[in-house]
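I'll show a typical protein example:
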Amino acid sequence: MRIWFLVQFFSFLTCIAAAQGKEANKIQPLFSVGPSTVSVDDFLYTYRKNHQNASQDNSEKEINDYLDLYINFKLKVAEAHIRGLDTTAKFNTEFKTYREELKKPYRTEPDALDKLTRETYQRLTEEIRAAHILINARPEATPADTLIAYRKLVDIKNRIQGVRILRNLPANYQKIHLLNIMAEI
């Protein structure tokens, strides 16, 4: 029990020293559990990783509460190592399960990869001819100006659709009608 309080006391002092300046947290360990030591940088990295959505103004109480949890975690891990719980078959199967779950998003399945490759190739073989018709309008255009531009676009669209319909008509009529449309534009 005394060791527990000593570890907390020294870790609290180390946190205060870390808050005083960056030189203090470069080399100094925050606390040690058995043969392993935890540096201030390790603790801060873990704290920030687990509190990404929290505000930047972390209170001293929040940090101390997390430090207590972190120390408890490290003590439990050290005790598990001493007991040999990290070598049991149950632990190893659970650990492998976690590892496989973490790998899944980074793996590609061959079938899915082949399907995506085929889709991409199909898209490359199709040629799309696109044309754009733009009607200028000032940024400060009134609704009436916008309506005029819209009506021009609708008129142009209807003429283009009319040309497409003409393709099915006899050649003589097509030439006459196309000349009339071109003359109006």
User: Anything to note?
Assistant: The CA atoms of residues 67 and 145 lie 65 Å apart. The mean pLDDT is 76. The two ends are 94 Å apart (CA to CA).
